[in-house]
Amino acid sequence: MNLSPQDSTAILLSMKIAVTATMISLPFGFATAWLMVFRRFHGKVLLEVLINLPLTLPPVVIGYFLLLFFGRNGWGGAMLKAAGSDFIFTWKAAVVASATVGFPLLVRSIRLGMESIDRQLLQASRSLGASWHDTLFTVVLPLSLRGMVAGSSLMFARSLGEFGATIIVAGNIPGVTQTIPLAIYDYASSPTGTSMALSLCGVSVALSVVILLLHEVIGKKLEHGGQP
Amino acid sequence: MKLRIDIEKKLGDFSLKLNTEISGDRVGIFGASGSGKSTLVHLVSGLIKPDAGEIYLDDACLFSSRKKIDLSPEKRRIAIVFQQAMLFPHLGVKSNLLYGYKRCRPAERRIKPEAIIEVLDLGHLAGRGVNKLSGGEKQRVALGRAVLANPRLLVMDEPLSALDDSLRYQIIPYLRSVSEEFGVPFLFISHSITEMQLMTERVLVVKNGRLAGISTPDELARTGMATNPRGYLNLLRLHGARQKDGLFYYPWGSSELIISDGKTGEESLFELSSRDIILFKQHPEAISARNLLECQVAELFDSDGRKGVVLDTGGKTLIAEIVRSAAEELEIATCAPLFAAIKASAFRRLG
Question: What pLDDT is attached to residue A224?
Answer without folding.
Answer: 55
